[in-house]
Amino acid sequence: MKKHLALFLVLVVVLGSVPAFGQTVDYAQELYGFGLIQGDPSGDLMAQKVLNRQEMMVILARLMGVEAAAGAFTLETTFTDVSRESYYAPYIAYAQGRGWTLGQPDGGFGPEEPLSARQAAAFLLRALGYVTGEDFEYDESLEFLQVPGMTRAEDFEDPLQIKRSEVFEMIYKALDMDTLNGETLGVILGIFEAPAPEEEPVTVIVTEDDQDESADEEERFVTVYGATTATTIEIHIEYQEAIDPDSVSLDTYSVGGGDYEVTFVDFGAENVIVLTVANPDGDDLEGEILSQNSPVRDLSGNAAGGLKATIAGEPLPD
After folding, report:
1. DSSP label at residue 288
2. Sheet containing 284-291: order of strands
């Protein structure tokens, strides 16, 4: 079933009243202040200039916080009409590698062709982690993006060649949109503060030892009740002594009899293990945590309101 983005205009609270549609110079100045767009050497943001496809790749890289990585990208694009000597070549290749652009049916990219409204929406959606053909259809990219006042081709002066000002407005409003992993783009970029988690703390009960006399290692069961989470939960396990890092792996711990996947194991301190447990349905987490290392003496945890981390903006390997 098609997924839709929910737009919450936190920008109204964070930045004051949002300018009315048409006051595009305000959007440009806001983005310029955030460091997300640049003008010409004189500082002109060229708001009324029509944007082309290759210029959009640079804007996307800057928007996603990977401008340096994209500009230094060494792999070549497979698009047949992009010159290796072009300033835009590494940005286009990076965008292709990230899946932001799929190119044209003839194998080209059309670097100097005007950017259309639907193309701009599709590029933004892909940069946010959405996949064409799975999460949205290209012909419905504007409707899926759901930027207020920009959901139809008729909302643009010329939907086949949109101006920089219109792209700036689209990007500005997209800052408050969720990426596919649930984090807001503006939070990822450090423009907005992440909302405080609303989940209740995890209630933890440590039971008596469950020792198998024939086993070489002691096992202690820890039961966690009523941990309401969004998509993951962090569980902190504190030992009395420092733990040998070589003795800890994803296989060291099991949660809920294996019903919950331990997706990440980290050290909070030399004697503290931090488990990240997947809970995609946001159900109450109830079950046993089994450690086959040294006995668990104390355990505390908290519910994580969303994914623990994001890969958005990380450069691809050379």
Report:
1. E
2. 203-209, 220-228, 284-291, 253-255
| Residue 206, pLDDT score | 37
Q: Which of 157, 188, 219 is the last residue of a domain?
A: 188
Q: Are 228 and 200 in contact (CB under 8 A)?
A: yes
Same structural domain, 126 and 221: no
Q: Measuring CA to CA, how many Å separate 34 from each of 25, 175, 190?
A: 14, 11, 10
Question: The tokens of 43 are what?
Answer: 């500082």
Q: Are residues 105 and 183 in the same domain?
A: yes
CA 64 – CA 314 distance, rounded (Å): 9
The sign of the dihedral angle between the CA atoms of 96, 307, 192, 228 is positive
The parts of the chain modelled with pLDDT lower than 50 are 1-25, 199-229, 293-318
- pLDDT the model gives residue 238: 64
CA distance 33 to 10: 18
Query: Which structural domain, as residue segments, surrounds residue 231?
Result: 203-304
- Note whether 31 and 177 are same-domain residues: yes
Can you give the pLDDT at residue 284? 56
Asked if 92 contacts 111 with a C-beta cutoff of 8 angstroms, the reply is: yes
Sheet holding 298-304, edge to edge: 262-269, 272-278, 232-238, 298-304
pLDDT of residue 106: 95
The whole-model pTM stands at 0.54
**Per-residue model confidence as pLDDT tens digits over 23-72:** 434 888 888 888 888 888 888 889 899 999 999 999 999 988 899 999 99
Among 106, 107, 93, 26, which residue's Cα sits nearest to residue 58? 93
Give how far Cα 222 sits from Cα of 207, 251, 260, 299, Å: 6, 17, 14, 8
Sequence-distant (≥ 6) Cβ neighbours of residue 302 within 8 angstroms: 197, 199, 201, 202, 234, 236
pLDDT at 10: 27
- 56 CB neighbour count, 10 Å cutoff: 26
